[in-house]
């Protein structure tokens, strides 16, 4: 698919990777607007096509007392407000068929979580909204198997599919990124590397997922060098107190320096 098909997506002729970034979950309007404002400024300066990311609800939690959201409609309206205020497209993840139609009224990209990417009804519902469908590779799936998820979108009459790699399970409590999968998946659809989720350490005895944010730059650099079309990162002003996935999130103060380095790598790769 052509990036120019996405409403409000800027800098599509810059030959840069595109970026999906924002908080894990929408915790409130003020935090979403503050994060969006800063990321928009950075990406405009670096000519990076940018999509604001925020989950309107979190359904895949380890514990029943984990934060799941501030209310579906309230969070979706905040995503819509971010889009209008900063003139950027937005992405959110969906978990049920009815979520596809609900979220499609507010966002430009519907994301299928890795645990749910084989759920045919969910993938087809997302495809039938005619939004971009971002398919996260299951932690249990091979890169080659993602062609079938993409085909479900295409066979539903929607050619706008992405694949996002978010790591593969390595034992019970760690993730790895097999960079051999990037060129494989790029044969099927534009491919994104989810940097921060790839650094999760799931299944902790506390029921709260851990992570390795110190490795964000390492994984990001490798992804750009491997030729990914896009990068996905969760970022926050206060990761330690974020209501979801704070352990593997990038502090927003480090985002600009990281992206400058990655743009330089991309420029070098493009010149070869």
Automatic annotation (TrEMBL):
Entry-linked InterPro entries: Aldolase_TIM, DAHP1/KDSA, KDO8P_synthase
Pathway: Bacterial outer membrane biogenesis; lipopolysaccharide biosynthesis; Carbohydrate biosynthesis; 3-deoxy-D-manno-octulosonate biosynthesis; 3-deoxy-D-manno-octulosonate from D-ribulose 5-phosphate: step 2/3
Claim: Disulfide bond is one of the keywords in the record: no
Limits of the DAHP synthetase I/KDSA domain: 13-261
Protein's name in the database: 3-deoxy-8-phosphooctulonate synthase
EC number per UniProt: 2.5.1.55
Annotated localization: Cytoplasm
Catalytic activity: D-arabinose 5-phosphate + phosphoenolpyruvate + H2O = 3-deoxy-alpha-D-manno-2-octulosonate-8-phosphate + phosphate
Coiled coil stretches, renumbered: none
Broad EC category: transferase
Record family assignment: Belongs to the KdsA family.
A cellular component term, taken from the record's GO annotations: cytoplasm
SUPFAM superfamilies with a match to the protein in the record: Aldolase
UniProt record, GO biological process: lipopolysaccharide biosynthetic process
Pfam families the record matches: DAHP_synth_1
Species the sequence originates in: Spongiivirga citrea
Molecular function, one GO term: 3-deoxy-8-phosphooctulonate synthase activity
């Amino acid at each position: 698919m052509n990036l120019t098909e996405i409403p409000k997506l800027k800098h599509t002729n810059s030959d840069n990777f595109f970026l999906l970034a924002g908080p894990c979950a929408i915790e409130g309007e003020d935090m979403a607007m503050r994060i969006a404002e800063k990321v928009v400024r950075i990406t405009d300066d670096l000519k990076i096509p940018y999509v604001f990311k925020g989950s309107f609800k979190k359904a895949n939690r380890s514990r029943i007392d984990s934060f799941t959201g501030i209310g579906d409609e309230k969070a979706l309206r905040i995503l819509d407000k971010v889009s209008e205020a900063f003139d950027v497209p937005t992405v959110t993840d969906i978990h049920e068929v009815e979520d596809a139609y609900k979220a499609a009224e507010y966002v430009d990209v519907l994301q299928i979580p890795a645990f749910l990417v084989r759920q045919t009804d969910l993938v087809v519902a997302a495809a039938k909204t005619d939004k971009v469908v971002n398919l996260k590779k299951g932690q249990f799936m091979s890169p080659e198997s993602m062609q079938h998820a993409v085909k479900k979108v295409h066979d539903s009459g929607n050619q706008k599919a992405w694949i996002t790699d978010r790591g593969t399970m390595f034992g019970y409590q760690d993730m790895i990124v097999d960079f051999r999968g990037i060129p494989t998946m790029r044969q099927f659809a534009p491919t994104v590397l989810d940097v921060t989720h790839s650094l999760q350490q799931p299944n902790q005895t506390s029921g709260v997922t851990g992570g390795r944010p110190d490795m964000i730059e390492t994984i990001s650099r490798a992804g750009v060098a491997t030729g990914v079309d896009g990068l996905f990162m969760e970022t926050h002003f206060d990761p330690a107190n974020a209501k979801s996935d704070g352990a593997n999130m990038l502090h927003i103060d480090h985002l600009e320096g990281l992206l400058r380095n990655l743009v330089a790598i991309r420029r070098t790769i493009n010149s070869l």
